């Protein structure tokens, strides 16, 4: 296998991990997310401003998301664009939910690092 084929294979595998991650996240299924995360995974939330909260380790990240899923039961992330470069992925998304009974959304990006077929980092950023 030449380096171009190897690069395409890596990008394809990386994309598959992120697609599975995003599907489980939108189902609010922390149990399905668990095997997709490295033990030392890092999540950087978009709040509080200005830098967001940094959460380290699979158990802590999953605990955070379980609470978040409970408080945001109707929320979904629509991937508008997915850019893969080796083991790095940028997902441009729209986050949609109801707020005060009205449709509401926020746009942003996640910057992922994939290592050994698992998410090692998810760094989230929002517009505005």
What does this structure look like?
- The chain is an alpha+beta fold.
- Helices cover 33% and strands 44% of the residues.
- It contains three helices and six strands, in the order ααββαββββ.
- Strand 4 and strand 5 form a beta hairpin.
- The longest helix has 24 residues.
Which terms summarize this structure?
128 residues, alpha+beta, six-stranded mixed beta sheet, 3 helices, 44% strand, globular
Unreliably modeled segments? none
Major β-sheet annotation? 6 strands, mixed
Q: Determine the number of helices (DSSP H or I, runs of at least 4 residues).
A: 3
Radius of gyration: 15 Å
Kindly state the mean pLDDT as a whole number?
94
Shape: globular
Q: What is the string of SSEs from the N terminus onward?
A: HHEEHEEEE
The structure class reads alpha+beta
Adjacency order of strands in the biggest sheet: 2-1-6-5-4-3
How many strands in all?
A: 6
Estimate the strand proportion: 35-45%
**Oligomeric form:** single chain
Helical proportion?
25-40%
Straight-line distance between termini: 45 Å
């Amino acid at each position: 296998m030449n380096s171009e084929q190897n690069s395409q294979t890596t990008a394809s595998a990386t994309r598959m991990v992120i697609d599975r991650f995003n599907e489980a996240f939108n189902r609010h299924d922390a149990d399905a997310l668990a095997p997709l995360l490295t033990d030392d995974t890092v999540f950087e939330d978009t709040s509080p401003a200005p830098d967001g909260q940094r959460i380290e380790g699979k158990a802590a990240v999953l605990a955070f998301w379980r609470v978040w899923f409970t408080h945001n039961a109707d929320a979904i992330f629509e991937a508008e664009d997915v850019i893969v470069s080796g083991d790095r992925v940028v997902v441009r998304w729209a986050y949609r939910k109801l707020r005060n009974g009205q449709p509401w959304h926020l746009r942003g990006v996640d910057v992922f690092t994939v290592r050994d077929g698992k998410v090692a980092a998810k760094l989230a950023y929002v517009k505005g």
